[in-house]
Amino acid sequence: MGNPILVLQMGAQVFKWFGVLGFCTYVPKYVQEQFQQSPSAASVLSGTFPIACAMVASLGGGFLIKTFRPSARILTAVIFATELITALLFVSLMAFSCPQPPLTERGTLQSGRDLINTCNQNCSCATEVFHPICEGKTTYFSPCFAGCFTKGMNGTAQRGSYDNCNCVDAFDDDGLARRATDGFCKSDCPFLAFYIMLLCIAYGFSFSTKTAQILIPLRCVKKEDKAFTLGFAEGVLALFSFLPYPLVYGSLVDSTCVVWEESCGQQGNCWVYDMRTFNYSLHGTTFILLMVGVVLNFVVFLLSGRLRNLYGRDTRLANRDRTLEGGSDVHSSTRSSRGSIRKLTRNEIFHMVPTNDPEE
């Protein structure tokens, strides 16, 4: 506690990585459910591309620090501004969502019991297997919950069809027979590309200050304490961020589930999420955690006047040395030549005195 900058910086890192890592872990599931993507496609879109942006941003941030060598005041101000922008980017992702397609004809699904209706109450349906089928704009949990008795014989190989479904009106408004087909109803949500682009930018801002956030703690302690400081900081992050974030975010995501797999009286995976709650829980929690880190970074900025010698040498002296580098080489060469001349003169006097000619 005797080093407030170090304590505040470590606290900011704990809250930041708690939120960022928790978000990174569950955003593929969000993309999969919100935009109806396959698990592999959701992992690539929300994992591979944003992480690549984060790597480039991290390298770029380190290069800029090496090139411009900003003062402690400027560096902490940049960290504060960047973290604030990062938090705003993450919360803005909340806006790129679409209404959840209704599951069952009643639209809003509160629990697995809501799947039971008068049209399927005698079918003894279970939630062990999730087999969605679509009719119109309504997705049913399975053919059983749609009250279907016959699988259509003229369905394509890709999408089977189901007839005689009690929960589906026999005819549409044009008098044509209605038929349910395999899979979710097609989503018209146009925001997937915008969401992934903004996600890449958010990851880039988040990782761009990684080098700076390592540099600041190292300049808060004595030279002999630097190795211990790095190890202690990693231990604090592991204890307060890396270990608890899966538990907290996992509980948040599970709380948004409305239909669970049930097998042999045991609860399994979640089949259906309340996407509105999922959206607010994932992005809102991350935003709150990041904003706590932003406040701590602002206090570090206010105390940045205590930091000295960020780069191991005084920046002004380093700049002066680079400016005078050429002239220093000339003077050094001249002094070396003079020293050689004086040395040669002494050698001639004491070691190279000509001897007498024996013939004289």
UniProtKB/TrEMBL annotation:
The lineage of its organism: Eukaryota, Metazoa, Ecdysozoa, Arthropoda, Chelicerata. Keywords: Disulfide bond, Membrane, Transmembrane, Transmembrane helix. Pfam families: OATP. One of its GO terms (cellular component) is membrane. GO terms for biological process: transmembrane transport. The chain crosses the membrane at residues 44-65, 77-96, 191-207, 227-245, 282-303. This is Putative solute carrier organic anion transporter family member 4c1-like protein. SUPFAM superfamilies: MFS general substrate transporter (SSF103473). InterPro entries: MFS_trans_sf (IPR036259), OATP (IPR004156).
